[in-house]
């Protein structure tokens, strides 16, 4: 009988714990694209190319593990300049880290849904433009993740 | 149950499955099934009792070892990371250590501590993933939602440290890529305190819930002798009472300088396997606290490679805490020779063997993953149980198919 009583208590405790979170839920849902989370400093998102710093060494294309980056050569420019294919990119950031001139930089934009496959291939000219997040451009509210002892992760409006 | 023969503690399930016999019923579970997926079990049943289970693996085999042999050695780090995406630092740390042994380079102390830090964050996230999947296998959606939601806290920490949620690509030969960001210790402390509180809720709602205990206790018992005979690794081994952990056996990262316990249980049943994971999460949080207290100052990349950077870049690395690679990294030459290394992942011990032949690509790269070593357990643990116990055993093993298949 005492075993059953102990078991009953544990049942009650499980139900009570569940009920506690029914009334005080611990939700972390973010309604993208009406809201978006601000990514931390140093996040490895879409990459931006600065052509004026580039010395056309080709190290970025050499180290790319996914063959996403390649040098676009022309008749007048035999050394070429890097372009990126976001169909292949795995966002490891090796190209950014090996660039001796800081001509490549990671940005905090990571909205990688595109309307067509062709849009995902960026030749050097397009690669050197600032990447735009459609959510931010559409006026989404910025949220900041905050660590909390009680709730774990909270998303605060900035 | 009567048809099971037991000799010397070994259940020879295959021998007694009478194929073609009308009394055995053959059930094919998978490769698309509502649990973790990508694999098939061929289960033979007599009535409701499992006679034999054959795990049919290989549905997500991607020839990773061969692919790694065809590319420059540094490119194998992001490649092999995809083997166990939920535990991606632990899975590549073994590879990086093997490469370091071949290249004869040692990471500086601060880099070793940072490696340990991310490894432990990964271990917690990996255990939470396993516990969530185990929960949903018992139809306990609450456990699934809670574990996956709380995993997000640890992914956020890893993201702030490395710049990516899952594919951290953090360790490189000679060190790590990023230094601790500002205010990280404070955030980690909050995450640890939150998790300690949540583990109590987990106990109340799942692990001490009589309904769950009834499903787990005494189910899928793995004897000590069986565990060592079958070469089981990780929490599954420790739940059978064998205190073996690659963090103790192999001195890597900063584990020899930190104090931690290796939790073991004697029962060897599904409950013990789950409880070992809970205790390991507590130990990991203890390790994280120690690291943040003890972490030494200094460089995060070996001097051998820092020296190759031009002076302005060297200053930039010291200022920003973000490593720049020397140009040599694109074509690192592996000297002739062999190197082996082992590392403790969330699922168990992972073993790497890398052979160099003086070229930029590894001549041979082989890996033995913990899930591959543990998959045999399905065959030995399930026979004799009712079919409803099968998901309980599956969940408690924390089996990860992409890791086993490579």
From TrEMBL, chain A:
GO terms for cellular component: membrane. Residues 45-74, 80-109 form the 4Fe-4S ferredoxin-type domain. GO terms for biological process: aerobic respiration. One of its GO terms (molecular function) is NADH dehydrogenase activity. Keywords: 4Fe-4S, Iron, Iron-sulfur, Metal-binding, Repeat. The keyword ATP-binding does not apply. The keyword Signal does not apply. This is NADH-quinone oxidoreductase subunit I.
TrEMBL record, chain B:
Pfam families: Complex1_49kDa. The keyword ATP-binding does not apply. Keywords: Oxidoreductase. It comes from the Archaea. One of its GO terms (molecular function) is oxidoreductase activity, acting on NAD(P)H. Its EC number is 1.6.5.11. This is NADH-quinone oxidoreductase subunit D. It comes from Infirmifilum lucidum.
